[in-house]
Write a structure and sequence with these properties.
single chain, about 400 residues, alpha+beta, Deoxyribonuclease I, Chain A, 2 domains, 6-stranded mixed beta sheet, 8 helices, 15 strands, globular
Length: about 400
């Protein structure tokens, strides 16, 4: 899997003729760029002789006017007992919509429990040496210790909601860790390096270095991982050119997937059907006037931005760059992302795993019993219904 600067339909001759297949998504075209025609994208290459079947699902790319890219690949074959999934990701360091991007990535993890899922790519985030919050002390003791980049820690856990159009790598790191907590994924690179090895940096440029690329897998499937190491860049003497071909170091991940032959002892499993969890927010918090006003302000600001993106999308449709179905899907993604951003920023998301999810108000739960009585409310209250109606009509 790799980043690229190609269109989503271009297939390099040297790759095809050497017996490889490439599946990719791309970002929008650049204007007047001599170095790269496209702003970047994510691709996966598979050897034809392996007999792998790859089903690609575009999650976010240039066709949806997204500044970031994400794509999911379902990989299967006649010899594998179960399919496995890879979600490739690239997060632009100079764009916003960070929380929306990681929320979208988290939704890709809704898969059958016997099908491993790996997140891989460059999300330009710093997490330092922080341990994933969902791991218990017993689970931590069973996992290899991760060697991280202690010079680039994430923002503290109490970091407020992002309201910047260009969050820092520390802020992106904190949101990334929240996604790992929700999906029960653990970071793999840094856990399998030889003893006394230097920090496994994934990005190096002159004298600067950090870890911004990650491979992750759920803790339930960690036992399938045999190794995950960062390949250091070659020395100057072994290069054909003075400069390295890229400022990123590759990550080599080895996963031992069960095959048909060695999985016959496994109990037969019924067909797994599960609906994706519905994203829900504490809409009742709109009762509070300060929350309602902030929600409306964010909606108005994001609507102006969304209108420009819809205008560009309409132009692509008119020029035949996308078809009507792509236009409809992309327009829906833009509109939903605006609403979700406003709701996530002001209302807070209800954890679908918590059936007793409660609302503690805009800041904290009332201390006294009397105060608690005054803040009890119902979504059927006329005041809240009127507020919702006004927002829907806006």
């Amino acid at each position: 899997m790799t980043e690229h600067h190609l269109s989503s339909t271009f297939r390099p001759v040297e790759i095809v003729e050497s017996g490889w297949s490439i599946h990719q998504v791309a970002r929008v075209q650049k204007r007047r760029s001599r170095q790269h025609e496209y702003r970047g994208g994510v691709a996966i290459l598979t050897r034809d002789e392996t007999g792998l079947h790859v089903k690609q699902t575009r999650v976010m790319d240039g066709s949806s006017a997204s500044p970031h890219q994400a794509v999911s690949w379902k990989i299967s074959s006649d010899t594998l007992a179960h399919p496995f999934h890879i979600t490739g990701m690239y997060m632009s360091p100079s764009e916003g919509m960070v929380e929306e991007f990681f929320q979208t990535l988290a939704k890709q993890n809704n898969l059958p429990p016997n099908e491993p899922h790996v997140y891989a790519g460059d999300n330009n985030s710093h997490v330092g040496e922080e341990i994933e919050a969902h791991l218990s002390s017993q689970e931590i003791s069973k996992l290899p210790e991760r060697v991280g980049d202690d010079k680039h820690p994430p923002e503290p856990p109490q970091m407020p909601f992002l309201d910047s159009d260009r969050p820092s790598s520390k802020q992106r790191g904190r949101v990334f860790l929240k996604m790992l907590e929700k999906t029960h994924h653990v970071i793999l690179n840094g856990r399998f390096e030889p003893k006394n090895s230097p920090t496994p940096y994934t990005w190096q440029q002159n004298e600067k270095a950090s870890i911004v690329d990650y491979n992750t897998i759920s803790k339930e499937h960690f036992h399938l991982v045999k190794s995950c190491t960062v390949i250091p860049r070659s020395s100057r003497k072994s290069r054909s050119t003075p400069k390295p071909p890229t400022d990123h170091n590759p990550i080599l991940l080895l996963v031992a997937m069960p095959t048909v032959d060695n999985s016959q002892e496994e109990p037969a499993q019924q067909e797994y059907i599960q609906r994706p969890p519905r994203t829900q927010y504490h809409s009742a918090r709109l009762k509070y006037n300060n929350v309602l006003q902030k929600f409306k302000t964010i909606m108005e600001g994001k609507s102006e931005e969304g209108a420009e993106r819809l205008k560009a999308l309409k132009l692509d449709l008119t020029q035949g760059k996308i078809d009507a179905d792509q236009y409809a899907d992309s327009a829906k993604t833009i509109l939903v992302s605006i609403i979700q951003h406003a709701a996530q920023t002001t209302l807070g998301q209800i954890d679908s795993r918590d059936r007793l999810a409660r609302d503690d108000g805009p800041e904290r739960q009332p201390d006294s019993e009397e105060a608690l009585k005054t803040t009890k409310y119902s979504s059927n209250d006329p005041e809240i219904k009127n507020a919702k109606s006004r927002l829907q009509a806006a």
